[in-house]
Specification:
This protein has 540 residues and is an alpha+beta fold. The chain is built from 16 helices and 24 strands. It has a 6-stranded antiparallel beta sheet, covered by helices on one side. It has a 5-stranded mixed beta sheet with strand order 8-9-6-7-10. A hairpin with a 4-residue loop joins strand 21 and strand 22. It starts with a strand and ends in an 11-residue tail after the last helix.
Length: 540
């Protein structure tokens, strides 16, 4: 039995099903991680349909001979880029994987589409010990000027048409949402075989997910760390610092940390409970600085495919790239040891680089540390910086947790002595992507974000911490469109799930599964937080 409660919002009335256990049914749009404000299925499908009953979805497919793998397809991608990639990857040599390039200097800044004042904030930080440590930065230019005239393409024939392009049979199909959903099993199989590219943008298939299920998924995939009766040496410990149930030998992790930061640095900054509040913050800040000194934020520049050779010698970071879409990770990176969620398939405009390369989105700590050499210090974006930082802090004995912002950002919190009462401890904001410590209001007052929901996440517990990051909490409640009571009920359901089925190998999709095993909805969920590029979107 259930009844219906209608929550009033500024511009919408949201229907929430309240079940006998008082757990609401909240549906998330995975393109924005915001609450769906319309009845699911028929009403929503009608509202998302464009002219002629179309929903803005299209499929580009190419039939290759069986010996070359058969059908290859792309959902809502740029047709010309996709065709060029198929020629390179299937009719020539394989698409390169991102590797070392000359160290990036320009174009490293993060993209935060929900933070309209980010660049103003960032420019105020530089020159004053700010977020990018005095590195020379430039605002990203057009990612792919060569495509400017190709972006506006004629609408595909709604019934589909085939075009012979130098012996390639390319088919364009404009599709309704229901048609695309009916193809889900076929698309899922193609994804597992690396024959499907999910076009750029955060949610090309307009996927949705239950709110509780989404939070549980993030929790199970979050980094966790603890020290188990280590004795005098951390090297004797086993630590879970990767996705849940993906255990990392602390000895192996420690060796990689020493390679990146040096044994002396690690010993100097090992947590000491006798330090004062100011001393603890000094050490925590030094660790954030070190991370940004060693690793580079990926800003969309071209990456060479091999550690040495003519391409690695000539491919430079100033070359711009554009996203073709997401692809299942390469077999050599698709393991629980790597934690590869997906690979970004990107096209490079520089004639000195490979025309296409794959940039793997990794989550496991050792492969992240090894990007120091494997990708010439190019670590990744906010997700990768937060996970590597979590591993560093946890390995040095700090209590640390992963913070998830539903307006497209992640960072960490570190438990330190309170500045007001050193007998107390408090969770302190730390943003490793920006090298910022204890500035929790910067996203709202500095970046101009309209915050909705922020959670502290671990595999065993999720806490709602939005109030710490806003000066106007009531405004965040209005934007998220459901009450604190509803939030409490939902998180109670989440934490009950996390406590009761910790040992379930599969429960609504396991976060530690291989990239090729991930569902299309999971890929949309991670695409939002991993900062998937939208620069190659085309309006067809």
């Amino acid at each position: 039995m259930h009844s219906w409660l209608f929550l009033l919002a500024p511009a919408a009335v949201v229907a929430v099903s309240i079940h006998k256990d008082v757990v609401p049914h909240l549906q998330l749009d995975l393109g924005s991680l915001s609450l769906v404000d319309h009845a699911w299925d028929s009403e929503w499908e009608a509202s998302t349909s464009g002219a002629g009953g179309r929903s803005g979805l299209w499929l580009v497919s190419i039939d290759l001979p069986p010996e070359q793998g058969g059908e290859v397809a792309c959902v809502t991608c740029h047709p010309k880029l996709f065709e060029e990639w198929v020629r390179t990857s299937f009719m020539g040599r394989g698409a390169p994987v991102a590797g070392p390039t000359k160290p990036a200097v320009a174009g490293q800044a993060s993209k935060h589409p929900n933070a309209p004042e980010y660049w103003k904030w960032r420019n105020n930080q530089s020159g004053a010990g700010g977020s990018f440590l005095h590195r020379k930065l430039s605002r990203p230019e057009s990612a792919h000027p060569a495509l400017d005239e190709q972006r506006v393409l004629p609408p595909p024939d709604p019934q589909g048409r085939k075009m012979d392009m130098a012996n390639l049979s390319v088919k364009f199909e404009s599709m309704e949402l229901a048609e695309m959903k009916a193809m889900a099993p076929r698309l899922q199989k193609m994804w597992s075989e690396r024959r499907l590219v999910l076009g750029p943008g955060r949610n090309p298939l307009l996927e949705q997910m239950d709110f509780v299920e989404a939070i549980v998924h993030f929790a199970r995939a979050s980094p966790a760390g603890w020290l188990e009766d280590c004795g005098p040496s951390l090297r004797n410990c086993t630590q879970n610092v990767g996705p849940q149930r993906s255990f990392t030998s602390n000895e192996a992790l420690w060796k990689e940390l020493e390679k990146s930061f040096g044994a002396k640095f690690l010993e100097e900054h090992r947590f000491n409970g006798l330090w004062s509040s100011a001393e603890q913050r000094t050490h925590a800040k030094a660790m954030l600085v070190a991370i940004k000194d060693v690793y580079i934020f990926y800003g969309g520049h071209c990456l060479a495919s091999q550690p040495s050779g003519p391409i690695a010698d000539t491919c430079v970071a100033e070359g711009k790239s554009v996203s073709v879409g997401r692809l299942a990770c390469r077999p050599e990176e698709d393991s629980t040891d790597h934690g590869c969620v997906f690979a970004e398939l990107r096209s490079c405009t520089s004639k000195d680089c490979d025309p296409f390369f794959e940039y793997a989105r990794l989550q496991a700590p050792i492969p992240l540390l090894q990007t120091r050499t494997e990708r010439s210090q190019v670590l990744g974006r906010c997700e990768e910086f937060s996970r590597l930082s979590h591993a560093l802090f946890a390995s040095l004995g700090y209590e640390v947790r992963y913070i998830l912002d539903f307006t497209d950002h992640v960072w960490i919190e570190v438990r330190l002595k309170s500045t007001s009462d050193e007998r107390q401890q408090t969770w302190v904001h730390a943003d490793p992507s920006e090298n910022v410590l204890d500035q929790p209001l910067m996203y709202e007052t500095g970046w101009g974000k309209k915050l909705t929901m922020i959670f502290a996440v671990s595999p065993w517990q999720v806490d709602h911490v939005t109030a710490r990051y806003t000066a106007d909490y009531e405004a965040t409640v209005e934007r998220r469109r459901f009450s604190d009571e509803t939030m409490a009920n939902a998180l109670n359901a989440v934490n009950t799930r996390l406590r009761t089925d910790q040992h379930e190998p599969r429960s609504g999709g396991s976060p530690h599964m291989l990239s090729r095993e991930r569902s299309l909805s999971e890929l949309a969920l991670w695409g939002f937080l991993d900062g998937t590029d939208t620069s190659a979107n085309v309006d067809v």
